[in-house]
Design brief:
The complex is a heterodimer of chains A (about 525) and B (about 45). With about 525 residues, chain A is an all-alpha fold. Chain A is built from 23 helices and no strands. Chain A is globular and about 70 Å long. Chain A starts with a helix and ends with a helix. Chain B has one helix and no strands. Chain B is rod-shaped, with a radius of gyration of 17 Å. The chains are: A mainly alpha (about 525), B mainly alpha (about 45).
């Protein structure tokens, strides 16, 4: 379906103009470094919720994971359960309030700064900053590539132009407007995402004949599951895979647990809690955040699975086959084939919003990690507004270069990898840090280093999905992985996080005993 | 066969019930605690 280029151009220009105006408002309100880094610690609850949600949900969550649902079915809904239960309720109610209180108490301005101040050592600030600078550029490059590829096909422009244009627009408001601009634009982009996904759900159920008829039609297609997937435990698109099968392990450990838990200790999200003036703002943000996430991932996974019904009715093929075997192409193909012209443009803006809101936060977090946490560690974090702006520019340039240089195979894995690394390295130390009266410094260091190291080793030597693409195990040992099934399909997070947690707990009890005996 | 909106596998429809239920729980939590935590009593 051809979309009118003039209408597309007008809507894109209006969208970019509103984004830049909001960026300018952020710039006008940014006077001190604290404004730049923490939005002056006075954000509105709706802005916090939409900004958190829009940053949380990138293009890969909608297009990538929606495509996975087209391939593996509605079992992906369990990721939505984790997204809301852990990513919103647990994150805001259990961690968010304590994080805000500790942030205000210590005067911390970034996530690594918070870690350093809770544990009273700049070393932890440095280690956290280094982990961010090692892991986050990969994820950023993935978001950049996703956005640029999408713009390339929709606007018919070259990939490099799309990549640079995309990065420059985001750069303009992040560099000048800091976190206030990031959160204002996030909220605007979050609202567009909400509209886009609501229309997508309604139209999809209309196309497949209604809720019950559509779901029944999907369930009745179980005999069309490809042989290769049946062999790995797939039973249909409206039923769970066989318990303990390779697909079950991938669905549960990598997708549901890996991504679901991984969201808890992401620095760019944790910092949102510190922008709240009071706990009341976080309570109010929960009211918006839960339904928002349901309408993002819940809709993406449901529609993803239901595209099988649509494609079968219109082409006689299942979704992945209709998309030429490329899971990432299912959602864009479905939108272009099924949806009215105007919605194709709205959905394009939805995806652009998802990419921009995530990207802006990543640029901002990496810039502050470089300037506050590595260069200026242990000093007053916010050295100057200008220094932080320069930090953002440096990290943007690195991300763009990475995006241009990285092979796409590894980039596609980067989202899950980054989330796994963050949870394995940061989560136990962060959880004990915000809750314990006297958190163990040695425990935090050991937990972070061991968590990151085990995650890295499992990624490189055991988990096939990454080990195969990285090729390090093949080079060093002559084998793609050093262990056999089922370990090769168990996500690195499932191994690294419990070890990191046990280490933190052991040190914590040890330090408590030491205090008691002295 | 028992089904919920055309879905017969309980492992799937329970997932949907939980996802929607948790989103409702978020709304209720936010509404009930709308004015709680107004002061910096925790810090």
């Amino acid at each position: 379906m051809a979309v009118d280029p003039l209408t597309t151009a007008i809507l894109v220009v209006v969208y970019v103009a509103i984004t830049l105006v909001l960026g300018y408002l952020g710039y006008k309100k940014t006077v001190h470094a604290e404004d730049y880094l923490l939005a002056g610690r006075a954000s509105h609850p709706v802005v916090i919720a939409l900004s958190y949600g829009a940053t949380f949900i990138s293009t890969s969550a909608i297009v990538g994971f929606g495509g996975v649902a087209a391939n593996l079915g509605m079992g992906m809904i369990w990721l939505t359960v984790f997204n809301i239960g852990i990513g919103i309720l647990l994150a805001f109610v259990v961690f968010g309030k304590k994080t805000r209180e500790k942030g205000a108490e210590t005067g911390a301005l970034t996530f690594p700064d918070l870690m350093g101040k809770i544990f009273h050592t700049p070393k932890l600030q440095l280690i956290s900053g280094i982990i961010i600078l090692l892991g986050m550029p990969l994820y950023t490059a993935a978001v950049l590539i996703g956005g640029a590829r999408f713009l390339e096909t929709t606007l018919s422009i070259s990939y490099t132009t799309a990549l640079l244009g995309f990065a420059v627009v985001v750069a303009m408001y992040v560099i000048y407007g800091g976190l206030i601009a990031v959160m204002y634009t996030d909220a605007f982009q979050g609202a567009i995402m909400l509209i886009g996904m609501t229309i997508l759900l309604i139209l999809t159920y209309i196309y497949v004949g209604g809720v019950t008829a559509g779901n029944s039609a999907l369930a009745a297609m179980s005999d069309m599951v490809p042989e290769a997937l049946i062999g790995q435990g797939m039973t249909g698109w409206a039923s769970m895979p066989e318990l303990g099968s390779p697909i079950w392990y991938t669905l549960i450990t990598t997708l549901v647990l890996g991504v679901g838990i991984g969201v808890l200790a992401q620095p760019q999200l944790v910092v949102r809690f510190m922008t709240a003036k009071e706990n009341r703002s976080l309570n109010r943000a929960v009211l918006v955040g839960g339904p928002f996430i349901l309408m993002m991932t819940g809709v993406a996974f449901t529609v993803g699975a239901l595209t099988n019904v649509y494609f079968y009715q219109h082409t006689g093929k299942i979704a992945v086959v209709a998309a030429g075997g490329n899971v990432d192409s299912v959602i864009p193909l479905y939108i272009n084939m099924a949806m009215p012209d105007l919605f194709v443009i709205i959905f394009m803006l939805t995806l652009l919003s998802a990419a921009m809101s995530t990207l802006s936060s990543l640029f901002h977090t990496m810039g502050s990690a470089l300037v506050c946490d590595i260069w200026g560690r242990g000093q007053k974090c916010a050295i100057s507004l200008r220094a932080n702006q320069i930090g953002c520019v440096i990290m943007m340039v690195i991300s763009v270069v990475l995006a241009l240089a990285m092979p796409e195979g590894i980039i596609a894995r980067a989202t899950a990898m980054f989330m796994g690394l963050c949870a394995s390295a940061f989560l136990p130390a962060f959880a004990v840090g915000v809750y314990a009266k006297k958190p163990s410094r040695a425990g935090a260091m050991a937990s972070m280093i061991i968590g990151a190291a085990i995650w890295f080793l499992w990624t490189v030597f055991v988990h096939t999905a990454e080990a195969k693409v990285l090729g390090i195990s093949q080079t060093l040992t002559g084998a793609v992985t050093i262990l056999g099934a089922p370990w090769t399909v168990i996500d690195p997070l499932i191994i690294a996080l419990p070890v990191s947690l046990v280490v933190m707990i052991l040190f914590q009890f040890q330090s408590r005993n030491d205090v008691k005996t002295t | 066969m028992f089904s919920v909106f055309g879905i017969t596998d309980p492992a799937i429809w329970i997932g949907y019930v939980l996802a929607i239920g948790l989103a409702l729980a978020c709304i209720i939590y936010g509404a009930v605690n709308w004015n709680k935590g107004a002061k910096d009593h925790g810090s």
